[in-house]
């Protein structure tokens, strides 16, 4: 399950309110993209959902339970970090198995889960390599593999492709969309790239200065932008 509801959440850093009261509902299995200019609060919103930051007020429900006070590791969500978060001295297998090893899972169970994830990600042939022996795209897949084995209720991606070159970005974008189709798990994806938002999302959340300007499917936002900000950002040229 991966239903996430934000009820009137706010976030202040000191005296600065970065997120004014915000409501959002994410339904199990959706691919939701947070889009908006740099500094609009995309990462903050993601970190609030993940529990890496505490909300100043309001509450967060995950699958019907109040998760507002739940520590990140117990929220059942997996944040996918950029590929440089891999352990360089460990094999791909050990990198992917890392969260399972930490959870004390038996070696047999770890191997089975790692092999299943590697198969989904076309990494089966690379399990005994080290991250340094992989391409950028393969390293990114290892980082995703480490999230998959935890069988999260939702995957959270914060600009995961921003370090990759343009050609690789297009390929990885398609791979992440494919992965979403295969797993049918909720994915929340942050980007400032309109093309990424339009091509990947079931639902786009357009943010400006911590405020949701519009929520809707790509076509809806394109054809019926609610205001000039949304129109300028992803709307059709008028
Ligand atoms: P985005 O990811 O959309 O670029 P962020 O969520 O990183 O935006 O930042 C939103 C706003 O919150 C920015 O004005 C940023 O400077 C501020 N901010 C983010 N994190 C902190 C922090 N830890 N302390 C103070 N201000 C922060
Ligand atoms: Mg950010």
Automatic annotation (TrEMBL):
Q: Where is the ABC transporter domain?
A: 4-234
Out of the domains of life, which is the source? Bacteria
Molecular function in Gene Ontology: ABC-type maltose transporter activity; ATP binding; ATP hydrolysis activity
Q: Name one GO cellular component term.
A: maltose transport complex
Q: Which UniProt keywords apply?
A: ATP-binding, Nucleotide-binding, Transport
Q: Which family does it belong to?
A: Belongs to the ABC transporter superfamily.
The name this protein goes by in its record? ABC transporter ATP-binding protein
> What species is given as this protein's source?
Pontivivens nitratireducens
